């Protein structure tokens, strides 16, 4: 038996080499990580929905995928044409109110405000303003780039899910190829990662629902306008662990200022801090650990380390990666309640 044949026959060593190869490929393509992860998430969620529907009726994937994507595009269109203009109007009102306040006679007559103004003149506000504008421009550019990434991921996931039955049949051809063992090991790792990811994404959806309910109740008590549209925005942003709560603070503060002034902005900031702490220190550790069957301490450590190394994406994929390695190493296998296929 040749050295190559011995290597192929040694499944444990072979899979280790394949795993290290996959890690190397992911590291080399790390600049494309956003589009890879977003495509995976979109595809996973739509695939799960298709499989759920096919439990009750045997219809082709296209019959579910096409209406779903049309609905998503329609909802995005409504958000862009209705919600974004509202935010723009609120922003203009905010700028006008601040400008009018500083130009009003009451500002000059107020000794406290005049003292603050004299104190602020000690700083070089012109350079600070230029730096702030530059930061905003870079931030807007980043949003545009992320928008393109989301669109590309959306399109890629559409073409994958619309051929959900055909692509697996095509993929099986690789399993029978000359180097079929290599693709068999890739499929082995892919199934394990999809399984662990499914467990964590279910927990994250539950956390997003809790965050949305708590925030919506608070906004309703404050008598904020457009509660339904705000609730949708909060739910979507809550799918981004920790960071989503902070991002939602910007439009909420703008609208709050127009409704109740600086007092309402303070209320919003307090609400964001409370929900942020609740998500970071209670919901994430508790529900993630219950779904992944991990001790809360390990869940805390994994979230902390993953955020340090991978940023926001680490909070999303940190636990799936950790539970994936636990499964691969034979330490602990994570089982899903739903045994349906995801691909």
TrEMBL record:
Principal location class: membrane
Gene Ontology, cellular component aspect: membrane
Transmembrane helix among keywords: yes
InterPro entries, A to Z: AI-2E-like
Keyword tRNA processing: no
Membrane-topology descriptor: Multi-pass membrane protein
An example Gene Ontology biological process: transmembrane transport
Subcellular location per the Swiss-Prot or TrEMBL entry: Membrane
Keywords recorded for this protein, A-Z: Membrane, Transmembrane, Transmembrane helix
Residue ranges of the TM segments: 62-84, 136-161, 196-222, 234-258, 264-282, 316-334
Domain of life: Bacteria
Entry-linked PANTHER family: TRANSMEMBRANE PROTEIN, TRANSPORT PROTEIN YDBI-RELATED
Family, per entry: Belongs to the autoinducer-2 exporter (AI-2E) (TC 2.A.86) family.
Protein name: AI-2E family transporter
Native organism: Latilactobacillus graminis DSM 20719
Organismal lineage: Bacteria, Bacillati, Bacillota, Bacilli, Lactobacillales
């Amino acid at each position: 038996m040749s050295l190559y044949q011995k290597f192929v026959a040694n499944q444990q060593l072979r899979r280790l080499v394949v795993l290290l190869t996959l890690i190397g490929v992911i590291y080399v393509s790390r600049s494309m990580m956003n589009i890879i992860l977003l495509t995976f998430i979109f595809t996973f969620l739509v695939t799960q929905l298709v499989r759920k529907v096919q439990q009750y009726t045997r219809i082709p994937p296209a019959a579910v995928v096409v209406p779903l994507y049309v609905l998503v595009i329609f909802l995005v269109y409504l958000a862009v044409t209705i919600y974004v203009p509202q935010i723009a109007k609120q922003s203009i009102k905010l700028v006008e109110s601040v400008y009018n306040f500083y130009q009003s006679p009451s500002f000059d007559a107020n000794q406290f405000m005049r003292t603050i103004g004299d104190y602020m003149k000690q700083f070089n506000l012109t350079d600070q303003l230029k730096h702030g504008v530059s930061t905003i421009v870079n931030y807007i550019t980043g949003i545009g780039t992320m928008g393109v990434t989301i669109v590309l991921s959306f399109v890629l996931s559409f073409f994958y899910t619309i051929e959900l039955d055909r692509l697996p049949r095509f993929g099986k051809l690789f399993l029978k190829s000359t180097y079929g063992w290599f693709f068999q090991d890739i499929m082995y790792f892919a199934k394990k990662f999809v399984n662990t990811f499914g467990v964590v994404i279910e927990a994250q959806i539950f956390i997003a629902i809790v965050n949305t309910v708590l925030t919506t109740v608070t906004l309703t008590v404050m008598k904020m306008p457009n509660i339904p549209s705000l609730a949708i925005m909060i739910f979507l942003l809550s799918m981004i662990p920790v960071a989503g709560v902070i991002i939602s603070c910007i439009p909420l503060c703008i609208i709050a200022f127009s409704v109740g002034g600086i007092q309402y902005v303070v209320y919003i900031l307090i609400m964001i801090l409370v929900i942020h702490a609740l998500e970071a220190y209670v919901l994430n550790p508790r529900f993630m650990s219950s779904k992944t069957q991990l001790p809360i301490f390990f869940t805390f450590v994994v979230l902390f380390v993953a955020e340090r190394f991978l940023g926001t994406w680490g909070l999303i994929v940190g636990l799936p990666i950790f539970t994936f390695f636990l499964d691969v190493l034979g330490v602990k296998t994570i089982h899903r309640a739903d045994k349906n296929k995801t691909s």
